[in-house]
Design brief:
about 290 residues, binds fe (ii) ion, 11 helices, mainly alpha, binds 1,2,3,4,5,6-hexahydroxy-cyclohexane
């Protein structure tokens, strides 16, 4: 079952016709995903539970611990393809828009990018792998610190974090004066790359790619690292912490984001037939066995 998503432009399918595409390009960034509370709806309950658990446990110390653990890259070795295949078994518990396995979403995203940017093969590959950090879920991590939207720790929670007006009430950092002010542990306008983000699949995959010396362009790495930072790229929070240079990063993330969001109700791609093309891209940009 594929759930329809609520958008700020009504129910226009942006891929249907030129008008839809135009609306998406114009208003795509202010689109709202449906996080409303509905105890009758098991998907909505699941999404809400995931975020409440995430927001209760994600503290500065928690993120430091996860970085310590995962940034040794000594958990497993795998090619990109084999890691992607594992996503067959992962349904993202934070996602209100789809309950298909993540591998389907990976190919839907990549193929739609390929249609619009046939020449930019690195962008196709970025679409395919952007959620691959979710493999942490197969190595002992609960989904709440793998999936979902991200936000910085160490400063006041942004006003547009989903459920954030209530979900942080049991988080110790909410009451820690070192971390609960507007700037918290940061300097004004320190820049997005200085922020310690909540632990999840974005930061992890970004680090894996850098560690394994992928030759993907910087733009791709930014798309991967910040695609879940909705409170910033969609909500407009944290302006006091970012710089001019971060606008370039935001442009990249927004360019990618439409494909992440608006492809989830598209048809299911023929994954077997598509592998040879994507394997050639993997060989070009991130070949061989990687350390994870
Ligand atoms: O539910 C989704 C999903 O977990 C995505 O992979 C993530 O990038 C989004 O930020 C989130 O809203
Ligand atoms: Fe993601
Ligand atoms: Fe995604």
């Amino acid at each position: 079952m594929v759930l329809l998503k609520e958008t700020s432009v009504g129910m226009i399918d942006p891929w249907d016709d030129d008008a839809g595409l135009f609306h998406m390009l114009l208003f795509g960034h202010c689109r709202k995903r449906d996080y409303s509370v509905d105890d009758e709806d098991p998907i909505k309950q699941r999404v809400r539970r995931t975020y409440y658990t995430m927001h209760t446990h994600t503290t500065v110390d928690f993120v430091k611990g996860k970085m310590e653990k995962w940034l040794k890259f000594n958990h497993f070795k795998s090619t990109i393809k084999d890691a992607l295949i594992r996503l067959n078994e992962l349904v993202d518990e934070s996602d209100p828009d789809t309950d298909l396995p993540n591998i389907v979403h990976a190919f839907q995203t990549a193929e739609r990018i390929r249609q619009d940017y046939p020449e930019e093969d690195w962008f196709h590959l970025t679409g395919l792998i952007h959620d691959l950090g979710k493999v942490m879920a197969f190595y002992g991590e609960p989904q709440w610190c793998v999936v979902g939207d991200t936000f910085p720790v160490g400063c006041k929670w942004g006003p547009s974090i989903v459920y954030g007006d209530d979900s942080f009430k049991d988080n110790p950092d909410t009451y820690n004066p070192k971390y609960n002010t507007e700037y918290g542990m940061y300097e004004p306008q320190c820049g997005i790359e200085q922020l310690m983000m909540s632990w999840g699949h974005d930061e992890y995959l970004y680090r894996v790619l850098v560690h394994n010396k992928s030759s993907l362009p910087k733009e791709a790495l930014y798309m991967i690292r910040y695609h879940s930072f909705y409170p910033w790229h969609a909500g407009g929070d944290y302006q006091h912490l970012i710089t001019e240079k971060d606008n370039y990063i935001k442009e990249a993330v927004l360019k990618f984001n439409q494909y992440d969001l608006y492809t989830k109700s598209a048809g299911i791609p023929d994954i077997e037939a598509l592998w040879p093309y994507y394997e050639s891209l993997i060989d070009k940009y991130i070949p061989g066995e990687l350390e994870w």
